[in-house]
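In response to reviewer comment 3 from the previous cycle, which asked for concrete evidence that the modeling workflow produces usable outputs, we include below a single protein chain processed end to end. The sequence was submitted unchanged, and the resulting structure tokens are shown without manual editing.
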Amino acid sequence: MYVDQMGDETLEVTQAVGLLQDKIRSAGLRLKESTDFSLFEDTIRATDDRYLMEDFSSKFFDLHGASAFWIGAWDKQGEPVSVQAAKIEDLRDRSLGQHWKQQQRRMFVDPTPEAELGEDHAHDAFFMRGRIVYHGNLWLRKDARGQGLAEALTQLGFLISLLKWSPDYLYGLMASRNAMKGFGLRVGYRRFAPRGTHWITPPEHIRADDWLVYSNRNDLITLARTIAAEGPG
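The workflow returned the following structure tokens.
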């Protein structure tokens, strides 16, 4: 873990994580953090959505404890209610935008020749360098929505990433309608760019209107402080 890089903020982040865990468990859910991505794939297959993002698939990446983790939540019957995952890339030698040019092609264009990746990716992505976390594959079962669990679960994933890696940035790609409705702000993102990756011809299962949503390290620390200050409930 990289908690020593945060100094005095570590206790505040840890306190916020505890409060989020209490909120989620009070809804009758059992939480598990894991670095076993074979189990992640099995858990995804047990959900209603069954969508495993390429970013977290063993078909494309060797995911292990030093660079990736996932969190699941289950109800009292042992049925999955939520999943999410995160991984970190060391991009000190290139920007996130440059990284996308290579990675998105590997994941989507090479397996699907009719797809065509553009060049006009989110402007902000070409200025983002360093230790960068991607947070994704977030799913929450329909009957658990509208109770504040999406926010608590996502924030938990953000702050666990902060404790593990103290990243320079944490980002996701979010459907434009959700970003414009304020969902990104509610879950903890603080910066928004009205385009993610640029697709000329996207693969069938990829949205072409996603936004880049992200926070820097200070944003995440501020999020933790806000949660800790608000206290239980």
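Helices lie at 9-26, 37-45, 96-109, 149-165, 176-180, 183-187, 217-230. We consider this sufficient to address the reviewer's concern, and the full set will be provided in the supplementary archive.
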